[in-house]
Amino acid sequence: MSNLNKIVILTGPTAIGKTEISIKVARIISDIEIISADSMQIYKKMNIGTDKPNKNILNRYKHHCIDLIEPWETFSVVQYVKQAKKCISDILSRNKKPMIVGGTGLYIKSLINPIFEGPARNQKIRDTFYKVAKEKGSPFLHEKLRKYDPEYSEKININDTRRIVRALEVLYETGKPMSYFHKKANNNGSKEDYQYFIICIYRNRNNLYQKINERVDSIIENGLINETKLLMEKYENINNLNAMQGLGYKQILSYLQGYLKKEEAVDMIKKKTRHFAKRQMSWFKNQIKIDCWINLDQYQNSEDITLKIVDIMKREGY
Predict the structure, then answer these.
(1) Sign (positive/negative) of CA torsion 86, 13, 242, 254?
(2) Where does residue 45 fall: left (phi above 0), alpha (psi -120 to 50 degrees), or beta otherwise?
């Protein structure tokens, strides 16, 4: 396989320092272009809470999959995979090197594994099943799914309403079970000749939690409250926007609407972010094959970490 098609993914839990390290790597390997794998950085006008690189960094180092949609728009995993692969193809065509950076595990997993493009949403069917779930509970729908698609039903928690409804929606729309489409995707394989190498950076839990607390204090100081206030002024029904369910924005929105005190909102952001980081690490350990784990606590500074990652990347053909 050509080294040109070896693609490094740098991932890790929130607040671990992925963006800072990726920029330092790009300073050394100058032909790198960064593709974000962050499900919040896709939103325009949401910069502070998503910890996007600033404009100077974005102007100096080419980034992709940032500022793709408005906060009121939806963006699926399938759409992300399409966009990311389009960027990869473009970067490689210009003899540059893609580097994927981010902590959204589902984006990464769906990028490296085949993903099927099911039928478009059928809101009428979907609403019908959600109504049944509300009246009879998700376990009732799960049992219904099990009768038609026992293989896929075993992979879904009986209380995972969203995935159960989607599986039933696909079944009723196409007449074929979800397991059929997943097998088809796996048999077809990936159209692109890419080989992914995944580096996951992490820290001791207490050290990571300290970094998270510092990150939250920093985004509050840098203007998250004002940024959220501007979003409130611009968009109607802001509580219903998917974008506003993101960590930080949801809690500050509650503060601005009078449901929480400022101190309560900030403490809640820290607590929720710590829990999120714990879930991320569990995902990386159980859902993705990590090629290289790097404990940042074993290094003196970010420069040493950067050199370690650069050394690994060069060894892998970058």
Answers:
(1) negative
(2) left
Taking each helix axis from N to C end, the angle separating 262-287 and 105-112, rounded to the nearest 10 degrees, works out to 20
Alpha helices in 178-245 (DSSP H): 178-188, 205-221, 224-234
Summarize pLDDT for 87-125 with one digit per residue, the tens. Answer: 999 999 999 999 999 999 999 998 988 666 667 778 889
CB 245 within 8 A of CB 231: no
**Could you give phi then psi for residue 41, rounded to 5 degrees?**
-75, -5
Pairing relationship of beta strands 97-101 and 292-295 according to DSSP bridges: unpaired
> Mutual orientation of helices 138-148 and 161-174 as an angle, nearest 10°?
40
In 3-state terms, what secondary structure has residue 218?
helix
| Spatial distance between the Cα atoms of 66 and 80, rounded to a whole number of angstroms | 11
pLDDT in tens, 175-226: 989 888 777 766 654 445 688 999 999 999 999 999 999 999 999 999 999 9
Confidence (pTM): 0.80
Name the nearest CA neighbour of 311 among 204, 199, 203, 195.
199
CB 230 within 8 A of CB 253: no
Adjacent-strand bridge partners of 64: 35
What pLDDT shows up at residue 318? 82
Non-local (6+) Cβ contacts of 66 within 8 A are 36, 41, 42, 52, 53, 58
As a whole number of angstroms, the distance between CA 281 and CA 287 comes to 10
